[in-house]
């Protein structure tokens, strides 16, 4: 894990420190959700049994089947009374609840025809809920239970009471229903679980991106705060200096207060000198995110914090061949700064001796190429660079990725894409990694228009 990722994780941990209403570890289902789903299922089961028994006149074991439904209802009442409805169910608690639902449905199907019952497909419902909300281990347990019970129902069940002489379904048909349910359980569990996992990883990565951007914006705002402090404190410090100087003139040379007044005057002048230094920072280093500067200055600012001894950073800038376009003027934007800074950090960290940054532009686009002479990207992961939390193995640590973390490049790509940037990763034939970034010039560049004699940026 590189330094950027570690900082992001630390911030994420600090800002998401378990509030009272937060889910328990591994819990992504509220208990009231499980209870509400079960009430809906029980209501549907009871209505179906009543219609079949009283409406259609089928001779089913109505009382035992209703007893199974009533037992499940009692469990729901107990959970509602003994546990707060807003409680987040732990992974283990959710497993027990969903396993109970699978067993209850299997018993009900066993009393009403087994796999001949068209409602046998409802055995998929707990599997889908588990795949979406619980861990893969939990989904595996519930899926295995569902498959075992479906297999039992294919062999043992009470007959479905058809009217008149009845209909005997072929064993081949029952085998086909069993096969369909087995395949459906396996496919739906794996498919939904994979989609849910990717969705959770993307949500976590986007939250980490938001935290990283907020941090960059705070750092960027410090410069503006320092300039404002220098401006606001300048007047009172000047007044203190004047008063101290007047007191010096009034006090006799042998006055016991003279040394204190001279010290006060000297310190006030020292404070004014410090504030003047803050106010006279280079214009491009102004903390305002709307300050205008040449593109090459933005690249230099992004790389400044990541330079290290023994590695030479060479920045080349100029218009593209056959183009006489002027250098784009951009804003000192926290998103672009952080995205470029992360890519620069990886290049500087793994370069052996040199990092070369080529900045070119034309009338339509702005191109930035970051190359280093390090070991390069692992060719087995090039096509998946930028995916959050992508596990690639120990070799990928050469490029600033830990075995289970891909947040650094994901955040950089996400932030730069906000300005229309496309990013490509590759390796030099002679060795070393290459990152190429291309922006549409009109999305990156800002124009200025005079307002009351002052140029202000306009997107």
UniProtKB/TrEMBL annotation:
One of its GO terms (cellular component) is plasma membrane. The keyword Nucleotidyltransferase does not apply. It comes from the Bacteria. GO terms for molecular function: ATP binding; phosphorelay sensor kinase activity. The keyword Transmembrane helix applies. The chain crosses the membrane at residues 36-56, 62-82, 94-112, 118-134, 141-160, 172-192. Its EC number is 2.7.13.3. The lineage of its organism: Bacteria, Pseudomonadati, Pseudomonadota, Alphaproteobacteria, Rhodospirillales. This is histidine kinase. It catalyses: ATP + protein L-histidine = ADP + protein N-phospho-L-histidine. Residues 228-443 form the Histidine kinase domain. It is found in: Cell membrane. It is a multi-pass membrane protein. Gene3D superfamilies: 1.10.287.130, Histidine kinase-like ATPase, C-terminal domain. InterPro entries: 2C_sensor_his_kinase (IPR050980), HATPase_C_sf (IPR036890), HATPase_dom (IPR003594), His_kinase_dom (IPR005467), HisK_dim/P_dom (IPR003661), HisK_dim/P_sf (IPR036097), RegB (IPR047770).
């Amino acid at each position: 894990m590189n330094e950027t990722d570690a900082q992001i994780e630390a911030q994420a941990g600090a800002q998401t420190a378990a509030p009272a209403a937060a889910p328990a570890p591994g819990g992504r289902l509220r208990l009231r959700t499980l209870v509400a789903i079960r009430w809906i299922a029980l209501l549907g089961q009871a209505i179906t049994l009543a219609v079949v028994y009283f409406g259609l006149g089928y001779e089913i074991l109505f009382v035992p089947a209703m007893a199974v439904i009533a037992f499940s209802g009692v469990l729901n009442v107990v959970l509602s009374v003994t546990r707060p409805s807003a409680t987040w169910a732990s992974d283990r608690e959710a497993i027990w609840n969903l396993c109970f639902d699978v067993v209850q449905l299997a018993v009900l199907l066993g009393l009403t025809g087994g796999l001949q019952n068209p409602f046998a497909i409802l055995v998929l419902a707990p599997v889908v809920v588990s795949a979406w909300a619980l861990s893969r281990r939990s989904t595996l347990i519930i899926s295995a239970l569902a498959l075992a019970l479906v297999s039992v129902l294919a062999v043992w069940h009470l007959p479905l009471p058809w009217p008149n002489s009845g209909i005997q379904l072929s064993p081949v048909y029952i085998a086909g229903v069993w096969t369909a349910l087995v395949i459906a359980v396996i496919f739906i569990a794996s498919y939904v679980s994979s989609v849910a996992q990717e969705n959770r990883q993307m949500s976590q990565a986007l939250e980490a991106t938001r935290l990283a951007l907020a941090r960059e914006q705070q750092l960027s705002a410090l410069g503006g705060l320092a300039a404002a402090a220098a401006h606001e404190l300048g007047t009172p410090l000047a007044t203190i200096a004047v008063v101290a100087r007047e007191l010096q003139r009034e006090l006799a040379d042998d006055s016991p207060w003279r040394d204190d007044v001279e010290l006060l005057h000297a310190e006030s002048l020292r404070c004014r000198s410090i504030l003047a230094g803050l106010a006279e920072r280079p214009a491009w280093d102004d903390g305002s995110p709307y300050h205008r500067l040449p593109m090459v200055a933005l690249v230099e600012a992004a790389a400044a914090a990541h330079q290290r001894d023994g590695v030479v950073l060479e920045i080349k800038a100029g218009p593209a061949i056959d183009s006489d376009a002027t250098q784009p003027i951009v804003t000192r934007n926290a998103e672009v700064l952080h995205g470029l800074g992360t890519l620069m950090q990886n290049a500087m960290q793994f370069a052996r001796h040199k990092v070369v940054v080529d900045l070119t532009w034309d009338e339509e686009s702005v191109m930035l190429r970051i190359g280093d002479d390090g070991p390069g990207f692992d060719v087995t992961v090039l096509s998946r660079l930028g995916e959050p939390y992508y596990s690639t193995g120990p070799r990928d640590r050469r490029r600033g990725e830990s075995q289970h973390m891909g947040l650094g490049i994901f955040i950089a790509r996400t932030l730069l894409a906000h300005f229309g940037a496309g990013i490509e990763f590759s390796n030099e034939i002679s060795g070393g990694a290459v990152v190429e970034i291309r922006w549409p010039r009109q999305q990156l560049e800002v124009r200025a228009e005079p307002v009351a004699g002052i140029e202000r940026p306009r997107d």
